[in-house]
Design a protein that fits this description.
mainly alpha; Four Helix Bundle (Hemerythrin (Met), subunit A); 80% helix; elongated
Protein backbone atom coordinates (compact mmCIF):
# COMPACT_ATOMS: atom_id res chain seq x y z
CA UNK A 1 0.00 0.00 0.00
CA UNK A 2 1.48 3.34 -1.08
CA UNK A 3 1.45 6.12 1.49
CA UNK A 4 -1.07 8.87 0.93
CA UNK A 5 0.34 12.37 1.14
CA UNK A 6 -1.86 15.23 2.25
CA UNK A 7 0.59 18.15 1.93
CA UNK A 8 -0.85 19.42 -1.35
CA UNK A 9 -4.43 19.22 -0.03
CA UNK A 10 -3.48 21.04 3.14
CA UNK A 11 -1.82 23.74 1.03
CA UNK A 12 -4.95 24.00 -1.13
CA UNK A 13 -7.09 24.51 1.97
CA UNK A 14 -4.73 27.20 3.29
CA UNK A 15 -4.65 28.96 -0.08
CA UNK A 16 -8.44 28.96 -0.23
CA UNK A 17 -8.71 30.30 3.31
CA UNK A 18 -6.18 33.08 2.63
CA UNK A 19 -7.79 33.97 -0.71
CA UNK A 20 -11.12 34.40 1.10
CA UNK A 21 -9.47 36.67 3.68
CA UNK A 22 -7.96 38.82 0.95
CA UNK A 23 -11.27 38.98 -0.93
CA UNK A 24 -13.11 40.18 2.16
CA UNK A 25 -10.58 43.00 2.56
CA UNK A 26 -11.12 44.26 -1.01
CA UNK A 27 -13.58 46.88 -2.17
CA UNK A 28 -16.31 45.14 -4.24
CA UNK A 29 -16.07 46.17 -7.87
CA UNK A 30 -12.38 47.02 -7.69
CA UNK A 31 -9.71 45.30 -9.75
CA UNK A 32 -8.24 43.92 -6.52
CA UNK A 33 -11.64 42.39 -5.73
CA UNK A 34 -11.78 40.76 -9.17
CA UNK A 35 -8.25 39.38 -8.79
CA UNK A 36 -9.08 38.01 -5.33
CA UNK A 37 -12.43 36.61 -6.53
CA UNK A 38 -10.67 34.81 -9.38
CA UNK A 39 -8.13 33.41 -6.90
CA UNK A 40 -10.93 32.15 -4.65
CA UNK A 41 -12.77 30.47 -7.54
CA UNK A 42 -9.56 28.85 -8.83
CA UNK A 43 -8.66 27.71 -5.28
CA UNK A 44 -12.14 26.20 -4.97
CA UNK A 45 -11.66 24.29 -8.24
CA UNK A 46 -8.18 23.04 -7.30
CA UNK A 47 -9.22 22.00 -3.79
CA UNK A 48 -12.25 20.11 -5.10
CA UNK A 49 -10.17 18.25 -7.71
CA UNK A 50 -7.42 17.43 -5.20
CA UNK A 51 -9.95 16.03 -2.75
CA UNK A 52 -11.46 13.89 -5.49
CA UNK A 53 -8.06 12.41 -6.36
CA UNK A 54 -7.26 11.65 -2.73
CA UNK A 55 -10.67 10.09 -2.13
CA UNK A 56 -10.05 7.76 -5.07
CA UNK A 57 -6.74 6.67 -3.54
CA UNK A 58 -8.36 6.12 -0.17
CA UNK A 59 -11.32 4.21 -1.60
CA UNK A 60 -8.87 1.76 -3.17
CA UNK A 61 -7.94 0.75 0.37
CA UNK A 62 -11.57 -0.22 1.04
CA UNK A 63 -12.04 -2.32 -2.07
CA UNK A 64 -10.33 -5.29 -3.61
CA UNK A 65 -10.76 -3.87 -7.11
CA UNK A 66 -8.87 -0.58 -7.52
CA UNK A 67 -9.67 -0.53 -11.23
CA UNK A 68 -13.38 -0.16 -10.41
CA UNK A 69 -12.56 2.87 -8.25
CA UNK A 70 -10.71 4.42 -11.20
CA UNK A 71 -13.84 4.00 -13.32
CA UNK A 72 -16.14 5.78 -10.85
CA UNK A 73 -17.49 9.18 -11.81
CA UNK A 74 -16.82 11.95 -9.29
CA UNK A 75 -20.25 11.79 -7.66
CA UNK A 76 -19.90 8.03 -7.18
CA UNK A 77 -16.55 8.63 -5.50
CA UNK A 78 -18.42 10.93 -3.12
CA UNK A 79 -21.18 8.35 -2.57
CA UNK A 80 -18.67 5.63 -1.75
CA UNK A 81 -16.85 8.02 0.58
CA UNK A 82 -20.10 8.53 2.47
CA UNK A 83 -20.68 4.77 2.61
CA UNK A 84 -17.29 4.43 4.31
CA UNK A 85 -18.02 7.15 6.86
CA UNK A 86 -15.86 9.88 5.38
CA UNK A 87 -18.87 12.13 4.68
CA UNK A 88 -22.20 12.45 6.46
CA UNK A 89 -25.41 12.37 4.38
CA UNK A 90 -25.75 16.15 4.80
CA UNK A 91 -22.16 16.73 3.76
CA UNK A 92 -22.62 14.43 0.78
CA UNK A 93 -25.46 16.62 -0.53
CA UNK A 94 -23.30 19.75 -0.14
CA UNK A 95 -20.42 18.03 -1.95
CA UNK A 96 -22.78 17.19 -4.81
CA UNK A 97 -23.67 20.90 -5.00
CA UNK A 98 -19.98 21.85 -4.98
CA UNK A 99 -19.31 19.43 -7.83
CA UNK A 100 -22.29 20.71 -9.83
CA UNK A 101 -21.06 24.24 -9.33
CA UNK A 102 -17.53 23.26 -10.39
CA UNK A 103 -18.86 21.71 -13.57
CA UNK A 104 -20.60 25.00 -14.30
CA UNK A 105 -17.53 27.15 -13.59
CA UNK A 106 -15.76 25.37 -16.43
CA UNK A 107 -18.37 26.78 -18.80
CA UNK A 108 -19.49 30.09 -17.32
CA UNK A 109 -16.97 32.69 -16.25
CA UNK A 110 -19.41 35.57 -15.89
CA UNK A 111 -19.41 37.92 -12.92
CA UNK A 112 -22.88 36.83 -11.77
CA UNK A 113 -21.86 33.20 -11.80
CA UNK A 114 -18.60 33.94 -9.96
CA UNK A 115 -20.57 35.76 -7.29
CA UNK A 116 -22.93 32.77 -6.97
CA UNK A 117 -19.90 30.51 -6.53
CA UNK A 118 -18.62 32.80 -3.79
CA UNK A 119 -21.86 32.12 -1.92
CA UNK A 120 -20.83 28.47 -1.61
CA UNK A 121 -17.17 29.00 -0.87
CA UNK A 122 -17.22 29.75 2.86
CA UNK A 123 -19.19 26.60 3.65
CA UNK A 124 -17.06 24.68 1.14
CA UNK A 125 -13.88 25.91 2.83
CA UNK A 126 -15.11 24.59 6.19
CA UNK A 127 -16.26 21.30 4.65
CA UNK A 128 -12.95 20.88 2.81
CA UNK A 129 -10.98 21.50 5.99
CA UNK A 130 -13.14 19.09 7.98
CA UNK A 131 -12.80 16.39 5.33
CA UNK A 132 -9.04 16.99 5.15
CA UNK A 133 -8.81 16.58 8.93
CA UNK A 134 -10.90 13.39 8.75
CA UNK A 135 -8.79 11.92 5.96
CA UNK A 136 -5.56 12.69 7.78
CA UNK A 137 -6.90 11.24 11.05
CA UNK A 138 -8.04 8.03 9.37
CA UNK A 139 -5.38 7.61 6.69
CA UNK A 140 -2.46 9.90 7.47
CA UNK A 141 -0.20 7.51 9.34
CA UNK A 142 0.22 4.75 6.78
Amino acid sequence: MNPIHFDHLQRCCLTLERSLQILKACEPGSIDYEVARNAVVKSFELTLETIGKLLRKILKEYTGTPKKVDELIYKDVLRHSALHGLLSPEELERWFAYRDNRNSTAQDYGVEFAEHTLGLIEVFQKDAQRLTDTLIAKHGNR
